[in-house]
Design goal:
Layout: E1 2-4, H1 13-19, E2 26-28, E3 36-37, E4 40-41, E5 48-52, E6 65-68, H2 72-81, E7 86-87, E8 90-91, H3 102-112, H4 115-133, E9 138-139, E10 146-147, E11 153-156, H5 163-172, E12 178-179, H6 198-206, E13 207-210, H7 218-233
Helix pairs in contact: 4-7
């Protein structure tokens, strides 16, 4: 089973472990480096966990990612698969080239040393958004017992507002926002018949990602919140 720490929010680890008892779990922690659930770091839940170092993530190497496991056999297989299927000097199976360069690794390690500082700052800014938006929109919340890294800070607009028009109005004020998420069953690249998923579909239709990065100042957050509230007030 594959579980996802969406937007940096930890999954409900205990409930999932109980529900999937006996099934191997792969944790997609691509967005969740630095997040914790009941004091346990994300990327420690599954048999294998994955991290991403894409430019939008908490730390970046330009691209690429990492697999984490405490299973020695799986770790050895992954090392073989990342290096053309090479094992002990012999090509044992078809595989690609997924090695990270030394320069990319150095870039990531330099940021990793500052991970606690980076995550703490993102949490401070997220709290500032919570204060300045004052309940005007549905703000992304972490499950009970969870500590998010706020890799993404999402809001969901009330249904009476047009998301695209709101984004354009923000853009007119020189503030860029992003789409919060996509629904897989709505993507043309993955055609499928699926029953309605009203919560998912509302997030896709009304969700926005607000600017959030460690170098932001409190005044920047105030400016974004003020602009959004002015737009909603019409």
């Amino acid at each position: 089973a594959i579980v996802i720490d969406q937007f940096g929010n930890p999954v409900r680890a205990e409930a999932i472990t109980r529900a999937l008892a006996g099934l191997p779990i792969i944790e997609d922690a691509a967005c969740a480096l630095g997040s914790r659930f009941n004091h346990a770091p994300c990327a420690t839940l599954g048999l294998v966990s994955t991290l991403s170092f894409h430019p939008r993530k908490i730390i970046t190497t330009g691209e690429g990612g990492m697999c984490l496991t405490d299973d020695a056999a799986i770790a050895e297989r992954l090392r073989t698969l990342r290096n053309h299927g090479l094992h002990d000097g012999t090509f044992v199976e078809p595989a690609g080239n997924a090695r990270m360069t030394e320069l990319a690794a150095a870039l990531g390690l330099a940021q990793l040393q500052r991970l606690d500082e980076i995550v703490a700052r993102r949490r401070e800014l997220a709290r500032r958004y919570q204060e300045t938006l004052g309940g005007r929109v549905d703000l992304q919340k972490a499950p009970d017992g969870a500590e998010s890294n706020y890799q993404t800070l999402g809001i969901v607009l009330p249904d009476r507002y047009d998301r695209e028009a709101t984004q354009q109005a923000m853009r007119d004020r020189d503030i860029e926002t992003g789409l919060l998420s996509y629904a897989m069953h709505r993507l043309d690249s993955l055609p499928s018949a699926h029953k309605p998923l009203p919560v998912t579909e509302r997030i896709v239709a009304q969700g926005m990602a607000l600017p959030l990065y460690p170098q932001m100042r409190e005044g920047d957050v105030d400016q974004v919140s003020r602009a959004l509230c002015e737009i909603l007030d019409g």
